[in-house]
Amino acid sequence: MMSSLPTSRRGWGPRLAIVCVATAVSLSAQATELQFEQVFSAKGEPGTLHYQAVFSANGGEHSMEVWRDGDRRVKRRTDGIIETYAFHKPGDVEFNMSILDMKKRIHTQVDRTNLYRIGHFTDWFDLTHGLKHPLGEYRIARSAATAPTARAISDCQWYDLTQNQHTSHVCWSSHSHLPLVIEAPDGKVVWRIATLDFKPIPASTFEIHDQGYIRNDANQDIEND
Predict the structure, then answer these.
(1) How far apart are CA 179 and CA 182, in angstroms?
(2) What element of type H or E holds 108?
(3) What CATH homologous superfamily does 26-224 map to?
(4) Per residue in 119-139, pLDDT tens?
(5) Which of 92, 123, 126, 183 has a CB 3.0–4.6 Å from the CB of 169, allowing a cystine?
């Protein structure tokens, strides 16, 4: 479920430029026998990873391409017009993010602390694994595969994640540490990884090219409010 930051903060970034911050499918949910961190764990994940996914949001279908360099940096390209770069010190909760609206040619910079200050609770796992951490009560249970509406590209284990009688079906890969398929309660596929590889990623992939872009420092605007 995608969301965007407010547009009233002195114009430091359009809604479209921020929308990809929360492209991870939001699965608000309650700790029971199975904990989110145990089931959807980043431990032992591949050092490098590149994938392409399709997902549903705001009544339409969208595409995303992601390059993940371990616990250090990630690049996401959404619908070919929004690029998100995030840089992280392994083991730290903080990260720095740059969002490029390639159509409007706007480069917005923001860090995790200031995202939290305005109520946008996104952490490093959310950015790099296609799922958001639970914020409320939830229940997780192993489940069998649902109807074959979406075939995962490799082996994965199905889980039911329930909140307020709303159950999402998640097929989690313990190898890639990603949800390969997510289905809504009605069986509609809302997230599916189409391609996936673990090849080394060139360092140039994470270079930000913003020549001629308007640069907005969201950190300064938020801190001065």
Answers:
(1) 7
(2) strand 106-111
(3) Lipoprotein localisation LolA/LolB/LppX (2.50.20.10)
(4) 887 889 988 998 888 778 899
(5) 183
